[in-house]
Structure formats: structure tokens, C-alpha cells
What does this fold into?
Amino acid sequence: MVDNTFTKNGAAHAFHLIGNPHSGVSPIAYWQIEQPGFFTTVQDGGRAGYQQYGMPVAGAMDLESYELGQRLVGNPMNLGALECTVMGPTFTVVEPCVVAFTGALMGPMVNDVPVAMNEAIRLQTGDVVSSTFSTNGVRMYIAVRGGFNVPVINGSVATHVKSKLGGYGGSRLQKGHVLILGDERIAATGLNRAVLPDYTVPLQYETPMARRAKQAIRIVLGPQADRFTEESYAIMTSEPYEITAASDRMGYRLAGAKLNHIDGADIISDGAVFGSIQVPADGQPIILMVDRQTTGGYTKIATVITPDLPILAQMGPGETVKFEIVTVAEAQAIYKTYCAMWR
Amino acid sequence: MTPIQETLRFAPVGDKAVTAVFGDTIDPAINRRIRHTVQALQTEVGHTIEEMVSTYSSILVIYDPLKKDYDAICDMISAASQTENETAAADKVRVVEIPTVYGGEYGMDMDFVAEHAGLTASEVINIHSGTDYLVYMLGFIPGFTYLGGMDERIATPRLTTPRTLIPAGSVGIAGAQTGMYPSDSPGGWQIIGRTPVRLYDGNSEKPTLLEAGDYVRYVPVSEEEFLDIKAHLATYEVKSFYCKESELHGR
It folds into this structure.
């Protein structure tokens, strides 16, 4: 039951409703954005199932921290959270709500008092939420029980800024934006905004930032590994690659030792996934991330395994990636253990 | 075994996807095989398969490795590729008619394309609208179709400097390819016309008018008809029908 004229544009929807927030019988819960942070968008698990139509998936870069946040506030997985890059937003809370901060360590504060990460926290009307520059990791997630009142497009609230689609009017948050919390969805899912859920993070859980210090980024060779010299595999796993400044939610452009094609870098365009490592003619790898196009025409030497994508998502420009090759059978065994570890 | 089955090969795309490669050329026969395989696998979507992306000569299959491992998923795709769909409908393809106003302000590069081809504008229109184009795949931006089968006579190089804004619905030529822009976008294609129909709608369950495997038939319309369709888009029904491949135009 959502008027179509507003579903296309979250912003129009929000401003329409906010014209007189306290006039109606039911109070509208919202967050008034005082400072937007560096780059803050609404993201969820991504727009899966529509790649056949050329629709980019988008969604959270660190799906693990995103999902952890949703669990902590007791949400179904597709309600969305704020993905904050490098520095989080400052906003004022109107009406009580339950939130959780996960992912990068941005020192979240409520009324200038630091609060714990990876825990459900109750907020009251008038509370001001803020954060600092990240001290570890790149992306922090702010989950809220019931999610946000933004349009669901093809089953997802994820923002894809390049196509101006999803989230808050298809854009990053700006000062002055009013983010209405998901009343309708709270009703639809039977959630109560004021009740703290009882989920806690498993004791053995290690964040992507903690895992990063201990291991390389693991990859499975293929689908076009045979288009590279064998020497390239050795180069790729022994040399460090730096994440360059030209890296974003679409892709991480790496700089390092050149990978050599046997017979050119072009292929007949095929499908790509989150973690596909494509190598254009210059021999410098590009890791495709969540905002990638659905198909690509460059050779792909390997793919980052799912459990290591959150580690990569928490790394930023200037940091160095080291790769390690595993077989597809090993990768699938690692994935099984990973899923059992924290779910 | 047919030659195509012999060439079917698999490569892992990480721990939860596989690419099934049906050939190394852009060929309607390969694409047909892909279409049939995707149809045969459709019942698995939502179970072992999360989604499939078909492209010119391969299918990317994203699956749940907790339910099926790499070898098992390859076996499943292999089996699906060999199921012959023997119903009469399987031989038929869907043709979608795209009303298009050619030239003028809607096709600002028409004169360049005609001059490059050594033809008149009306000859370019006849050639362009006289062939049905196979939708090999969608990608680049939501709803963008990669079409095959354009007549070489009207092939034209891309603009040397791309335009910052091409209006939605624009029909263009880039090298030996033709296609259209589903939404406003920057682009370097030579624009020869524009269609009023909506090619992409993000609010719809099936967000694009066209799917891989459809054929596109451009139908020239006057500016008056173009404006009329545009004004009544909510009630306008895009014409589409099924026919045998032998009945397609430009074979």
C-alpha cells in the first residue's frame, strides 16, 4: 500500500510526510540529518535476481557487518541500514528506536558519550548520534529496528548512486535530509521498535578488521585464468598490490606487478560477480565490487572468496592486498565453516 | 552429441558461481542453446540457483554452495543443456515492435550515418527497420540491450567525443551494433532515432520491456505518432507476437 508517485523518489516521499510530523494521530519516527558524514547511503543485501535485466546489485560492501547489524536489532535481512564511509553522520533522533553500530570502528557516540559497537542500543527522542573518523576499517553500518521508510525497488532498498536509484532518492545523505523510520514495515513484520532483541554476537566471532591482520585475501582462479601466463599466478600471489585512490563501490583498482595476458585482454562480454578480478590490457587488476555493472568484457583471472570480501570491503586506498590461491573445493569448505561460525 | 554440447565447458567464478561457456563466437545458434538451458534450469531458481545471467555465449549461474557443490552444479547445468524442448512453442521466438521516429531532432546523427554509408536517410531507415535484431543480453545500465544482426552497410564508428546526455529511448549505431538507451545516459553512439516506449521501469516486477532471446523490430513512425504514443504511454500497449525464426525479417 504505497502510492506509486512517491515510491520512485524517497526524498519526495519523506518531505511529503514531514510537512507536519506531529499533526497526525500516529507520531512519525525520523532522524534529522545534521551532518551527512563522508559518504553515507542506505544499503541492504543488494538487488539480487535482476542482473539478467542489467540491474546492478548494489547493497552493503561488507555484507557480514551489515547482516550482523540486522541480527542485533532483530530485523529481517532486507530492511536496510546506513552504510557510512570513513566518517559517519550526525543526526537527531525523534521517537525512540533501537540501533546497532557494526563494521569499521568510527567511535559512535550518543550525546557525545561513546557507546559500544556490535550491541543493540535504545535511543530516545532528542538523542544526537555522531561519530569520528574511522580508526580501523572503512565502512560502519547503522542498523535500526524496522529499517527506513524508503521505496523498495525490485525487492531492495539499496542505493545505486550512479543510476540514481534506491535508498534516499537514489543519492547519498545530505545535510537537512529527513530519514523516516519504517513504521509500515514494523507493523508488517510484527516488530516493536522499543523492545531490545536478545541476539548477541557469538564469543568466537572475529570482525573483518581482526581477520585482516592474520591472513591474505583468498582467491579461486578462473573463469579466464587460462588467458594469463602461468608466471602471472606466481606474481599475483607473491607481490603486494596497493588499493589506489581510483577505488570506490564499483571497483577497487589495484597497482602492482603487471599480470601478463597470453593473447589480449578482451573477451566476449560475460557475467561478473562481487569479487571478480578483471585485468585490462595494462595488466593492473581491478576487483569488481557491489556497484559493478552486471557484465564485462575484460579477462577475469580470479575471484575473491565470499568470506574474504568483508575484509576487502573494510580496506581503503593506500592499503596493500596480498593474495593466496585456493581451489574451488577448498573455498566451498571455507564458506561452510564461515556460515556456521557466526550465524 | 551435437557440436555445441561438445564445446560446453565450465569455469569457477569464486565459491558460489560458475560460468558455463557454450562457444567462443557471437552466434544465434549458441544463444538459442543458452536460452533453452536457462529455461530448463528455471525450476531451480530459488532453490539451488540464486540467479542466472545469460550473455552472448555463456551463462553465469550463481548458486548456493551449501546446497550443491561445484561439480554437482556443473553436472546439473550440463544435463539441462541436453534437454531438448520439443514443444512447438520452443521453435518460436518473441518479436517486440519498437515504434521509432527516425532523423530530425530525435536522430541528430542520421545525416552523418547516411553520408558515411553513402546512402540516403530513407535508405538507412529501410535497412535499419528491415531487419529483426536478436537481444543477446542485457547489461551496461539497467535495460540496455545488446542486439545482434545489423546490416553492415549502415555500420558507423562511435562519436569521437561521447555526448554527456542521450535522452531515454534514443536508438543508435556503434560500429556494427545497434541498440537503444533505456534511460538518460551519457553515450558515444550515433543517434538515428527515438522510441517513445518505456524500455525500463524500476518499479515493475519485470523491470525491462525486453529480455535476452527476444527479437526487436523497429517500426518507423511519424513525429505525430511518436508524440501521440508518448502522451498516452500509460495505456499504450507495445505490440509483440511469436513467430518461427524462418519468418523473421532480414534472414
Notes: The longest helix of chain A spans residues 328-342.
